[in-house]
Design brief:
Helix content: 25-40%
Strand order of the largest sheet: 1-2
Structural class: mainly alpha
Largest sheet: 2 strands, antiparallel
Oligomer: single chain
Number of helices: 5
Order of helices and strands: HEEHHHH
Number of strands: 2
Strand content: 5-15%
Radius of gyration: 23 Å
Distance between the termini: 30 Å
Length: 114
């Protein structure tokens, strides 16, 4: 597939081991033996993994709502319909955080999912 070759090009150095394409069938050979998260010079990241053939995209908005369905359910009980769950009076989400029903870390992930 050439993933390690592409990784080397993106890193602008020979990091990952690569092998030549087989002459008999024009296919490459698996060379990656371990998973590794690499930081690219431009600030991006790439995950080099052995045997990975396919990735599925995650639907951002739908997937995010499903990930925090418990918080979304609480948000339906906020005093204000347009509550941002930051400092508004009558916020059911903040109340749940204060009571310990929702962990602070989970609340922070909900507020800043990136």
């Amino acid at each position: 597939m050439g993933k390690s070759t592409i990784t080397n090009l993106l890193l602008d150095k020979e990091h990952a081991k690569v092998q030549k394409v087989r002459l008999t069938d024009s296919h490459g050979r698996h060379t990656t033996a371990h998973r590794e998260l690499l930081v690219l010079p431009n600030g991006g990241m790439i995950m080099d993994t052995p045997g990975l053939r396919e990735l599925q995209l995650w639907s951002g908005e739908e997937g995010l709502q499903e990930s925090f369905d418990d918080i979304e359910e609480l948000a339906a009980n906020c005093r204000f319909r347009d509550c941002r769950h930051e400092s508004e009076p009558g916020c059911a989400v903040l109340s749940a955080v204060e009571l310990g029903t929702i962990e602070q870390e989970r609340y922070e992930s909900f507020q800043n999912p990136e």
